[in-house]
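TL;DR need structure tokens for one chain.
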Amino acid sequence: MKPALEALLQHPSIFRPGDDRSQPPGLASGWPALDAVLPGGGWPQRALIELLPAGAGIGELSLLLPALREAMTAGQGMALVHPPYVPYAPALQQAGLDPAQVLFIQPPQARDGVWAMEACLRSGILGAVLGWLEQPVTQPVLRRLALAAELHDGLAFVFRPMAAAEQPSPAALRMALAPRPDGLQVTVLKCRGRPPRSVLVALDPHDV
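>> reply
TL;DR here they are.
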């Protein structure tokens, strides 16, 4: 390869498949096996992360707990937008999350959840924003969330039904979650610079 071309390809703004050197460091997930397959070695920040669980309550929040604790230890709160269950303060406290730093948003109509999540991402005061979108959403709506996440100095997770995996998504990271007797099977469906991979995460049964 000619030296001039090699020098050009080494520029950090150039992306090549299989090479994630240009990826900024991610926030450690707390699960080494998962970090090994994530861009930047952890959850990407300033990016929309889409999680597609096989059902509610299979351990999807336990998967995020270490990173959420880290965000809240830094004095930043988090928002839960239209979650399937009302947060239980004692359970949050037992999991190491300060209930006083958790903003629970339950819009009167499910479609308002997108607006609420976008507003939280653009607020600039939260370390993590988690939103549940059970209703079908259009690509323009998802792109709005993705753009808002790029302006958010923290973590942005959106939960959608597993059936949504058949549809395209602007999310930077997209993962399917399935329960297993010994943990949670995490399958990376979309991840810049990394091929699709699957990993088993052994969750703590005492977490939420």
